[in-house]
Design a protein that fits this description.
Elements: E1 5-6, E2 13-15, E3 20-22, E4 24-26, E5 29-36, E6 55-56, E7 63-64, E8 85-86, E9 91-96, E10 104-110, H1 129-135, E11 138-142, H2 147-150, H3 167-182, E12 188-198, H4 200-209, E13 220-224, H5 240-250, H6 255-258, H7 263-279, H8 298-301, E14 312-317, H9 336-347, H10 349-362, H11 379-390, E15 396-401, H12 419-423, H13 438-455, E16 475-479, E17 484-487, H14 491-511
Parallel strand pairs: 3-6, 7-8, 10-11, 10-12, 12-13, 13-14, 14-15, 15-16
Antiparallel strand pairs: 1-4, 2-3, 4-5, 5-9, 9-11, 16-17
Length: about 525
C-alpha cells in the first residue's frame, strides 16, 4: 500500500445535510472520526445535530459513559482501547476509499458489550481502514447510549419518556438515518447498507429487525455471537418501580431531577439497586424494553414480516465464554482414551457416555477434552433462531468459527476471537498469527462478508458452495483451516449437552479475567 498522508484545509472536505466535515487521507483511505449524528438530553429521544463552521473530524468522539471503570486485563485475547467517556456520545466514524459517486456497499459496525458497555473503538480490530481498502466499501462504526442512559424505561412518567427504554436503539436508528441521508457524499450507496455486530452488537442487529423505525435504513445483517437467549433478554414490564428505587437512592423526587444528577451518582445508584431487581426477575435497566418501538425478541414473538426478507448471516464461535481462560489440561499430553477419562471425571460417567460419541461425530478432528469447552449458551438458541428465520425466506445463512489458536499449546476459539478475521485486521492481534492458516482463513471470511454486502449472498470463489438454511437443514459453514459446510452436524450434541455444560461454562466465565 502507498505510504501517504494528506491533511490540509482544502482536502477531505464533505458537505453533509447537517454541516461540513473535514477528515484526512491516510494510505489512500479517507478517514472521518467523531462525526456527530445527533444530540440528546438525558433519557430523551435523539435529535439531529447541526453546525455552521467546518467541523474537524480527525479525532474519535466521546464513547458512552459506563457504570464501572474496567481494569485492563486479558488483553492478549481481546485487545482493547479505552477512551474519554461522556453521555453525549452520539457520534460515528467513517472510512472510505474515495469521496466520489462510487455507490460502494456500506457496512455499519455495532459494537459489543451487551447493551451496558463497549464502544465503537473499544477493540483494536474495530479499525475500518483495511476493510474499506480490501473490500472497496465504506465502513462506519457507531457510538450510542448504553446502560441506564440508553435502556431505562421511564414511560410511566410522561410521553416525553415514551421510548427512553430504547434510547440507545433510537441513537443507532438516528445514526442509520444520518448514513442514509449523507453516505453518498462519502462514496457509499444508501440503498445497500449492511449492519453487522458481535455479541451485544449482534443482538442489536436483531433489535433493529424488530424496530419499525429502522425500516428501510438497512438492507442486510450479520449477527456474530449475538443470539444469547436469556443472557440478553428483553424487559417487558414497566420500569417504574426500578426508577423510583433509583430516585430514592439519589434522594430526588422526579425524573427531571434525575436528569440533572452527575452520571457517577446515577451509575452508583443503578449498580446498587439493580442486583436485587435482577434476582427477582424484575425490570431494571440496561436491556431493550419491549413496546411499539421495539416489538421484542423474535424467538418469543416471531420476526416482523416487514424485515423477513432481509438477508441475514448468523453465527457463533466454538468455545465462546468457556475459552477465555486456559484449559486445566494440555490436550496434546493425553491420548484420546486418557482424555475421555478426564471428561468422565468432570461431568460424570453417564453424561460422558452419552455426549462423547455425539461430540466425536460432530467434531472428529477434535480431542475429547474439547467437549468441556463446547459452547451451548449461544449455539442452542441460535439453532432455534435460524430455524425460525429460514422458515420465512431463502436468504438466511449460518456459520461457526472453529479455528484454534496458539495459546497454551492450542486453545479453542473464544468470544471475540473471530472479529479480526471479519475486519481483515488479523495483523493487529498477535494470537491470530498461524503459519499457513491465517491469511487463507481471513480471506475466506472477509470475502464471504464482502460478497454478502454486495449481493445479499455470501457465496464466492474462496469458499465451498454455501447453501442457505431451511428449517430442516442448517447448512453451517464451519470456518477453520479446513473450511466447509456441515449439515445439522451439532444439533443433537448441543441439545443434549446444554444442561450438563452450561453450568460449567458460566463458572468458567465468572473466573475469566477478560472484558468482552
Amino acid at each position: 500500500m502507498a505510504l501517504s498522508f494528506h491533511y490540509s484545509p482544502q482536502d477531505d472536505i464533505v458537505e453533509t445535510n447537517r454541516g461540513t466535515v473535514r477528515g484526512y487521507d491516510f494510505r489512500g483511505i479517507h478517514v472521518f472520526k467523531g462525526i456527530p449524528y445527533a444530540k440528546a438530553q438525558r433519557f430523551h429521544a435523539p435529535e439531529p445535530e447541526k453546525w455552521n463552521n467546518v467541523l474537524d473530524c480527525t479525532s474519535f468522539g466521546y464513547v458512552c459513559a459506563i457504570p464501572e471503570i474496567p481494569k485492563p486485563q486479558g488483553e492478549i485475547c481481546v485487545p482493547h482501547r479505552y477512551w474519554p467517556m461522556s453521555e453525549h456520545c452520539q457520534n460515528l466514524n467513517i472510512w472510505t476509499p474515495a469521496l466520489d459517486n462510487g455507490k460502494r456497499p456500506v457496512l455499519v459496525w455495532l459494537h459489543g458489550g451487551g447493551y451496558e458497555n463497549g464502544s465503537a473503538i473499544e477493540h483494536i480490530a474495530y479499525e475500518g481502514e483495511n476493510m474499506a481498502r480490501a473490500g472497496d466499501c465504506v465502513v462506519v462504526s457507531v457510538n450510542h447510549r448504553l446502560n441506564i442512559l440508553g435502556y431505562f424505561d421511564l414511560s410511566a412518567f410522561g410521553k416525553e419518556y415514551e421510548n427512553s427504554g430504547n434510547a440507545g436503539g433510537d441513537d443507532i436508528i438516528a445514526a442509520l438515518r444520518f448514513i442514509h441521508e449523507n453516505i453518498a457524499a462519502f462514496g457509499g450507496n444508501p440503498d445497500n447498507v449492511t449492519v453487522f455486530g458481535q455479541s451485544g452488537g449482534g443482538a442489536k442487529v436483531t433489535t433493529l429487525l424488530q424496530s419499525p423505525d429502522a425500516d428501510g435504513l438497512f438492507h442486510r445483517g450479520l449477527n456474530m455471537s449475538g443470539v444469547i437467549g436469556p443472557v440478553l433478554a428483553d424487559f417487558k414490564e414497566s420500569g417504574e418501580e426500578f426508577a423510583r428505587a433509583v430516585m430514592q437512592e439519589l434522594r430526588v423526587d422526579s425524573v427531571q431531577e434525575m436528569e440533572k444528577v452527575p452520571y457517577e451518582a446515577l451509575a452508583a445508584a443503578y449498580l446498587k439497586r439493580k442486583p436485587a431487581f435482577a434476582r427477582q426477575g424484575k425490570t431494571s435497566a440496561g436491556m431493550p424494553f419491549r413496546n411499539s418501538h421495539y416489538l421484542g425478541s423474535p424467538t418469543e414473538v416471531g420476526f416482523r414480516k416487514e424485515t423477513a426478507q432481509i438477508p441475514l448471516l448468523v453465527g457463533s464461535v466454538f468455545g465462546e465464554f468457556s475459552s477465555f481462560s486456559a484449559s486445566a489440561w494440555d490436550r496434546n499430553a493425553f491420548t484420546d482414551g486418557q482424555a475421555e477419562d478426564i471428561v468422565r471425571g468432570q461431568i460424570g460417567d453417564s453424561a460422558a457416555g452419552e455426549l462423547l460419541p455425539l461430540f466425536q461425530k460432530a467434531y472428529p478432528e477434535r480431542s475429547p477434552l474439547d467437549l468441556l469447552n463446547l459452547d451451548t449458551i449461544f449455539r442452542l438458541p441460535e439453532i432455534t433462531y435460524v430455524q425460525q428465520r429460514s422458515a420465512l425466506n431463502h436468504c438466511t445463512w449460518s456459520y461457526l468459527f472453529n479455528q484454534d489458536f496458539p495459546l497454551d499449546g492450542g486453545r479453542t476459539p473464544w468470544h471475540c476471537s473471530d472479529i479480526p478475521f471479519v475486519f481483515h485486521n488479523t495483523e493487529f492481534t498477535p494470537y491470530a498469527q498461524i503459519e499457513g492458516v491465517t491469511e487463507k482463513l481471513q480471506a475466506q471470511m472477509f470475502d464471504a462478508l464482502m460478497a454478502f454486502a454486495r449481493t445479499g449472498n455470501p457465496n464466492n470463489g474462496s469458499i465451498p458452495l454455501w447453501p442457505c438454511d431451511t428449517p430442516q437443514k442448517e447448512q453451517v459453514m464451519v470456518f477453520d483451516q479446513n473450511t466447509g459446510v456441515r449439515v445439522n452436524f451439532d444439533h443433537d450434541l448441543v441439545k443434549q449437552s446444554a444442561p450438563v455444560l452450561q453450568k460449567w461454562m458460566m463458572e468458567k466465565m465468572a473466573e475469566s479475567q477478560i472484558q468482552h
